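testing teh design pipeline on a random one, pls ignore if ur not involved
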């Protein structure tokens, strides 16, 4: 059977299609909460990251902790270790492959094994899997809608060969029964611009039509930083 997801991973792991990677992050956070059972979920996110992708996470019970990156776009592990000492043990660690360039994951794998964190590879800037991307994480996120002329489209991949050696049978059962929908509470519906979300495809089409007539509108979104990273 032909599967579009084969372009994003070579048959390894499970793949699930969603509208946006923001929902992928929310689902992963929800699954982590089931494992942790108590306490808030700590998520380490690079300080160079799309704010819109964090909108849903800001509405659920978790703590977003921004960490600095180096000039070569790799995580600054020295500062990250200081953040762990200050903010607590992380539950999730997001490692980004910026601009479709493979950013070494070896230290991120070691870090996640040491702290028992789930490793999320963000490959939003990659149209398909290439060497050095999607080979190490417990989860891999792809966002084809950011690269193709389509209104929605994100792929969440779970891997058993990541640093946490996840039991994929549990995730397959959860997703097949659509139990992850419980994260989509009325509270999130109300706060996450439910009307716009429900009719996002129509908004997208309208936006493309207006842009063809050179009609544009500059929209500014408020940015709220949850945690302040350690300065140099």
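output:
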């Amino acid at each position: 059977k032909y599967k579009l997801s084969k372009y994003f991973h070579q048959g390894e792991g499970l793949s699930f299609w969603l509208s946006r990677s923001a929902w992928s992050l929310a689902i992963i956070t929800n699954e982590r909460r089931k494992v942790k059972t108590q306490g808030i979920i700590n998520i380490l996110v690079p300080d160079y990251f799309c704010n819109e992708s964090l909108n849903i996470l800001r509405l659920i019970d978790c703590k977003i902790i921004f960490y600095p990156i180096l000039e070569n776009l790799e995580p600054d592990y020295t500062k990250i270790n200081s953040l762990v000492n200050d903010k607590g043990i992380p539950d999730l660690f997001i490692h980004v492959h910026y601009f479709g360039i493979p950013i070494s994951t070896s230290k991120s794998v070691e870090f996640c094994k040491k702290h028992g964190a789930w490793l999320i590879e963000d490959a939003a800037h990659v149209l398909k899997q290439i060497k050095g991307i999607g080979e190490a994480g417990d989860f891999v996120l792809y966002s084809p809608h950011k690269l193709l002329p389509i209104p929605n489209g994100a792929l969440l991949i779970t891997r058993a060969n990541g640093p946490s050696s996840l039991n994929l049978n549990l995730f397959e059962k959860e997703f097949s029964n659509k139990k992850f929908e419980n994260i989509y509470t009325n509270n999130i519906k109300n706060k996450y611009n439910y009307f716009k979300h429900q009719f996002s495809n129509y908004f997208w089409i309208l936006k493309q039509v207006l842009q063809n007539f050179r009609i544009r509108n500059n929209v500014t979104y408020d940015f709220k930083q949850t945690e302040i990273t350690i300065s140099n």
